[in-house]
Structures are given as C-alpha cells and as structure tokens.
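Students often ask why we bother predicting the structure of a whole assembly rather than each chain alone. The short answer is interfaces. A chain on its own may look different once its partners are present, and contacts between molecules only exist in the joint model. In this exercise we take two input lines together and write out one structure for the complete complex. Read the inputs first and try to guess which parts will touch.
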Amino acid sequence: MKLKRTFSEISLLTITLALFVIMYGAGVLFYGFRISTFLNLFNDNAYLIVATTGIFFVLLTGGIDISIGSVVAFTCVFSAWLLEKGFSAGFVIPLVLLIGLAFGSLQGFLIVKFDLQPFIVTLAGLFFMRALCSVISKAAIAIKNPFYLKVALAKIRFTLGRQHPKIYFYALFAVAVVLGTAFILKFTKFGRTVYAVGGSEQSASLMGLPVKRTRVMVYGLSGFCASLGGVIYSLYTLAGYSLQNVGMELDAISSAVIGGTLLTGGVGSIFGAAIGVLIQGLIQTVVTYQNLNTWWTKVTVAALLCLFIIIQRAMSVNGEKARKNRLIKAA
Amino acid sequence: MKSGILLDMKNICKEYPGVQALDNVPFQLEAGEIHALLGENGAGKSTLIKVLTGAESLTSGAVFLNGKSVRVKNPLQAQHMGISTVYQEVNLCPNLSVSENIHIGREPRTRYGLIDWKTMESRSRELLAGFDLDIDVIRALDNYSVAVQQMVAIARSCDISARILILDEPTSSLTDTEVDKLFSVMRRLRDEGMGIIFVTHFLDQVYQVCDRITVLRNGRYICTENTKALDKVSLVGRMIGKDYSELSGSRTSREETGDKDILMDVRGLYKSGTISPLNLSLRQGEILGFGGLLGSGRSEAARVIFGADRPDGGDLSLEGEPALFKTPLEGIRAGLAFCPEERKVEGIVGELSIRDNIMLALQAKKGMTKPLDPDEVDRLTRKYIELLQIKTPDEHQTVKNLSGGNQQKVILARWLATDPRILILDEPTRGIDVGTKAEIQKIMISLADGGMSVVFISSEIDEMMRCCERMVVLKDRAVVCELSGETLTESRVMQSIAGKGE
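Now the answer. The structure tokens for the assembled complex follow.
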C-alpha cells in the first residue's frame, strides 16, 4: 500500500529529479562540470523559472497561457524605453509589474466571463504584446540605468578551493519565488482551490469553491510572473529588444511537463517544474560544451517531452487498470 | 423513526421546449425515512431531482422545506439549505486526497490562517471510522473504488450537516458487499433522523431498504405507497402503466410464423461488469424484443452483439458462420445496423444535413477512402425521406431543426441505406409523439415482413406486445427467460421482470 502510493503519486517528480541528477552526474564525469556550472543554471535561467512558475498555476487549472513570452519581451522593451526616457527604476519596475498583472487578469476575465478558449485569448494576447514591442521600438535599447546595473551585478561569491562560483541576487530571487509558490499551493485556500479546479471544475463549484475567481486569478498571476521574469531578463541582458524570447512560453510549458505537470490539470509540483527548467538549461550547457549546433537543445528537449508524455500516459492507464482489477476482484 | 414532514413539493411543473417533463407532481419526504423514487425512462425522476437541487428551475409549483417556502437557485444553495446529492458519477475531485475532498472549502486553519493538514486528516479519519471505512485518507481519491468514493461523498454531505440526502442511482456500479455497506450507512442515517431520497432501478434493493415508494410515469405522479403495502408485481405495473389485475392472459401480439431459419445465434457472449453470458437466437424476418426495466442490461446486450462494446468472450454466428464483432464497423460490414438509445448523443450529427446524416453509415460501410456516387446518395436520400415520411422541406435541412420523431426517422434511414440484414432498435419511439410512434412501429413490421430481422428494445410493454413475435426478458444484466407463442403475454412478461417467472 505505502509503496504503491510512492509510485503513483510522487514518481513523476522522482523521475524528473533522477533525470536531472543523472544528467548532471554525467556532466561532471565527461565534461568536468563544477559547482559553478550548477549555479549558472540558476543564473542563466532565473527569468524562465519565474515565468514557468506563473504558467504553472494556469496549467494546474487545466488552462494554458501562451502570451507569456510576449509579456516578458514587452516588459523588457517598455522598461528599457522608459529608463532611456529618464524615468527612475523605482517607478518603472512597479509599473511594468502592474501592467503584467492587469494584462493577465484581463485575459483571465475574458476567458472566464465569456467562456472562451484560453488558447485563443492568450494567442491574441501574444500578438498584441509582441506588436506593442515593435510599436515602442524596433531597435534594441540598451539599459544604462545605474540601479539596474547595480542590481544586475549584485551576487554572492564563494570560495571553494581554487573555484570561485557565484550566484546572482536575481537567481536567488527566482528560488524564493519557487519556494513561495510551493507554500501558497500547499497551505492556502487559493492554492488548494487551484488543484481542485484542475481535478474537476464541476465538482469544485458544487463543493462551493470560488471557481471563476480562482481561474481569473491564475491568469493574473501568470501575467504578473511573466512581467517579473521580464524584469529579471532585463537585468540579465541589460537590454530590451522587440524580437527577444520568441517561443519562450513553449519552453515554460515543456519545463512544466518534464517536471510532471499534467496538461489536463490538477496534478503537478512546482519543484518538478523548476527542475524541468534546470534540465533544459543543462541540455543547453552540454550542447555548448560539445560545440554543437544550438538547435540540438530543442531536439533533445523534444525527445524528453515525448518520453515524459508517454510515461504519464502509461501511469494513468496503469492506474485505471488497477482500479478496474480491484472492482472485478471485489465482484 | 421520527416523523414530521421535512420536504414538501407541491404541483411541480417543469416544461422544456415542446416537452412537459413534470406535470403537477407532488412529493413529500419525512424525516427519518428512506424514500424510493421510481419510474422508467422519461418518467421525470431526474428532472424532479434537478428541480429540487436547483440544477434546473421549476416552471411552476412550490417547494416547502420544514414548512417554509423556498426557491432553490443552484446546487450550492441547496447544500446550504441542507440538501445534498450523491450522484452515480461522484462529484468530488479525483486528484485531491480523501481528507481534502471531505474538507475543501472549510479546511481547519492553524492560528496563522494556514491550512492545518494534521487536524484535517485526523478529523477525516474519525469521520470515516463512523462509516466503518478504514482507508488511508492521505491518498488521492482516485486510488479508491467508486464505492469508497461514494461513501466519502456521503460522509462529506453528513459532515456539512445535510438533512436531506439524495442518492441518485448510487448502486449501479457497486458490488453486493458494497451495496450492503451502503445500505447499513443509509439505515443508520435514517435512524438519526435524516430524510433520504433513493433513486434506483433495482427493485430488490427498494424492498431491502426503503420505507416508502413514489412512482412517476411520463412526467406524472402515479402513487406514493408504503413499501410493505405494495408488492413487486403491482409496483412494476405502476411503473410501466399496466395494472396487473386488468392484464389479459391472452396474446395480443403478432402471430409467430412457425419455423423460420435462424439467422444469428449468440452463445455465451459476455462483457464483464456489463452483461452476463447471453444465449439467444434471432430468426430470419422476425421481430425479437428485449424486455426488462431500465438498467436490466437490454441496451448493453444489444451493444455487445453489434460490437459497440467489445465483448470479453463468447460466440456469435451469422448463418452458421462464426462472426464476432469487436468494433461497430465489423458489425456494419456484416450487415448489422444499430440505432442507439440516446439519439442526440450517440446517433445524430445535428449540424449536418439530412442527406449527410443518412450517408454516414453508408460511407463507413464502404470504406472511408472510397467516394460515394453523389447521384446514388441523392436517390437513396429521397427514397427514404419518402418511404419514412420524414417531414422536411428538402434533404439539405440541418437535422437539429427537425422534431424528435423525424430525427429518429433520419437515423433509421441512415441504417436502412446500408441495406442491413439485422436491425437493432434501442428505444426508437422514446420521446416522440404518438403518431410518429405508430408510424415507426408500422415501418418496423413491414421491414420484418420483407425479410429483415429486427431486435426491438422498448420500455413500453404495449408496443413490445404489438410488434414482437418473441421476447427475451432481462433482469440484473442477464437473460431470465425467453417468451414466445402462448407464453408471450403481458402478465408473463411482468412476472419475469418482477422476478417471479416460471
């Protein structure tokens, strides 16, 4: 009994974690990965971790939000443009976060109020935000704001023998976002409602849970996290460009799936999703070490996605079979 | 038993466009009783439940709860009033743990306002112990059987202090031991003063556990009786609209025309959990009835024969040649045709035209890649519109705009276009007007006279008697007897259904 639970409910996360450990171990053996390689996974993918966290809420309810790549890009371009105009960081950052939150909530409102397909609504959102980027500026804008420069370079440096690994503040911030999300999902009514809605929307509303409000809120959160990811990305690159992060929403979705999130909703762990991001980062690192065409990253990710979807499917089919067997045995 | 009227529904009417689903129906529930709500297809049971739980609004009538007039707007409000419903399809979240399903929306909190998982789990364990259920409450609900899930749903209802519990066909997918367990819980809740409405189509269970019975038929109230005062045969009579004492013992059906060749022979065909091994034969040019109450397995038997449900084992032979259909397409290719019961769900494609609907099965039979000759299709369409007297301006009318009777005729035309040897009709006359009903019966008889073999399923004993030459009666998902010739009388059919055959 106990063993069985471990298998069916935790194993997706375990598989993801094991995959990461194995890949990293292989990296250490064959490419001489160091602590810094590990920390750089966070440094380089902090923005994606934060954006994935946002979309993870939406995926848990069984919805989807493909606008987040554009929201990230818009946040970068718009803040770079505002900063160039001389606005202060203390004004720009809250403003772009607010825009992300409002934009996500608006999408959620449309989806819930008019019972629209999330895919179509957020596709419109994707076009809208991407187009706004180009309206603001077609050329890349560099960020020279002193506050941004300072925060971008803020880091903790360790000394381990002859190694000097470092982790940036914004990477630590991304980790904090993940921990906060885990807390919200486990210990608040909102978090549990998100899972319930994903499990069965009809049941959730019959049990008296605020289904509609929750669904609007997850899209709001997704937009907010996307703009937060955008702020981190502008710290990471110190620039804003209208064609950046094209297709990033798909990276976020695939990270969540590799991390064990069911796209039908109701099942998934934020740690899994975050590890999913790290796995993609790891593949990228290996491809760079090997000096391969960078598209090999996508080839590998595609293979992994297939693998995970098949595993998920096999597990749910197994579950159904087991249930059926129990029924027959009982009869 | 405590008494006192808990729920009083008066003159309940519910109209859907074109249909009077409930016509002046009264219903009373006392505290501390288990009250069976019975009726055949289309009797209005589920509509009455929906009105009571607020899933549908009533057209006219009044509902009194503890003497106070109430208007239930939605299921959530019904719950707040103390009316909880447990459906056959459990309305809980399968991905959440058992304890969370019991407590979600009203979780115990720690002093920081966070969810207190420990308290929640220990409370759940205590609650379920009261239901004699010792399960791991931390595991996700979908690890457990439907029986356990229903028990959890009932426990949740009780925990939010329901006074009226509606069980809507809860036993359909339960095993005997699970049913017993459910019944003992029901009895306990009754003794604590709860009023329980029990909807089922298993008559034996009604007699095991219910105090009173209310019967509905065709949206009308028939009677409310003490279970002890109503024997099974008269109950069946009330349900299908025939009083046993008025029944003639004589044959009213068509004469059986002696020794026709056996066309299809079914030996031991079964699907576990759906239908017990079937033995029956179908002769050339006869109409064979599948009798029995709703849920007796008559539709399931038809589905297994046709290949709509894949049989687990057994033999089927067609003209002496072994033939077992694993998919509907195999059935179609062998010359079978099946008009399913739920024509809206399983039969009609409402958005397509009459012509396209008719050609669907023909195309499937011929193969998806082989084009049909458009002139041929036009000819067939016109032929069947005329033959079946489908009332429509032209063959390009979308089917959803037709009346129920005409939709049924379109499905019939679809299958007739494939030129079948065996036609299976599952409740072809349900929910359509009397005139069209008679037309469809006539068509069926003339088809049989033309040499086609017809399997006919209906809840109305009258039309079964009129049309069938032979009848197999099913009960509890198995054939209980086969009637023909002298033995095929209404009284024999009813006795068999009530379980007093032979």
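Check your guess against this: Residues 248-252 of chain B have pLDDT under 50 and may be disordered.
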